[in-house]
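Notes from the 1:1 (GR / supervisor)

We went over the backlog. Supervisor wanted to see one worked example end to end before approving the batch request, so GR pasted a single chain during the call. The sequence is below; no edits were made to it. Supervisor asked that the structure be written out right there so they could see what the output format looks like.
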Amino acid sequence: MLERLSWKRIVVELLLFCLPALILSLFIGHLALLLLISVLSALLWHFYNLLKLSHWLWLDRSIMPPQGWGSWEPLFYGLRQMQQRNRQRRRELASLIKRFRSGAESLPDAVVLSTESGHIFWCNRLAQQMLGFRWPEDSGQQILNLIRYPQFAAFINKKAFSEPLTLQFNNGCYIEFRVMPYDEGLMLISARDVSQVRQLEEVRRKFFTNVSHELKTPLTVLQGYLEMLGAEEEVSPAIQQKALDSMQGQTERMSRLVNQLLVLSRIEAAPRYLLTETVNVPAQLEILSHEALILSAGKQQIHFDTDPHLQVLGNQEQLYSAMSNLVYNAINHTPEGTVINVVWKRTAKGALFSVSDNGPGIESEHIAHLTERFYRVDPSRSSKTGGSGLGLAIVKHALNHHDSHLNITSQPGKGSEFRFVLPEGLVIGKW
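Structure output shown during the call:
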């Protein structure tokens, strides 16, 4: 460990410079001249070290300080120690910034750091994707020039950040903004995509509206007949029987609606299955064929073309719900004399299930909406057949759990086909 520089050390060093002059003057004299030369040598020595220090300070501070001797050694050593400490602090600071950025990148929200005036100095990758920022090109840009919505400008300029701002972008997405002042003159702006939440709220609103509408008619009918039967006037047996039959029909309709709502709710709420259960689809279709014949009562010609050895992995209840709803829809929504073909076979892409008919068909503008809850092509006809508009919604969600989707093709006057393919990974046995 070097000693600290002191005036005593400087005096000793000066004496060492003068010592040769004293010794030499004993032999040749001229003490004053020799002492002057010694002092000048000492000055030149200090001037040389001063130049080295100046060169290091102004030209190349990235390298270590030069090596010093004598009284300059503690000074250069101290500078070397200070530089090492600074480098260590910079490494720690860089590591801290790296960890902060890594943590900010892993957040599920877009994060933007800006000054109080709105000039951006950092944002994470999600902000670049969600808000369309370019980094580092947009560094220093005014955020109001990048997010050009009057509501957002008013939100930032008002500086009342206790409540978030939800903004609908031009692409239809709903983005929720929150602003947190976290240091003097600095702001942290977080943004979250809440489009799915908004969609769920809209679905829930439509769901309650539709359920209320579906239940209103049968409840009104039941209430009317009950008031009639409870009146003091006598009611003829024929009218009583008609009222009882109508109430029974409306009760059955409500029961089917509630059962389908429970099935749909159970499928939607269920987690994704591991799909390790072996489903004997041919056996299920054998049961379904008998039920279809009973439901049709001979009005349609129903043909089942089933591969008796084709089994799959999946959830038996959900697959049966999907298949039975497609078959029942074909029976309920086609006229007498229609030919209905049900196919279960293996293809290069997986296991194909198809229900086709030569019925009246469906207009193209309806096809994209058929899997929506309570959607009906012909509401009056569905009410007569007892349809609730939930069957294809059940099919859609059941197939989603099996990595499949429903394909619908139809031509008015020529018929319709509803089909789905379970992926090859769910098929038991080799192709």
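Supervisor's comment: The domain at 107-193 is CATH 3.30.450.20 (Beta-Lactamase).
Batch request approved.
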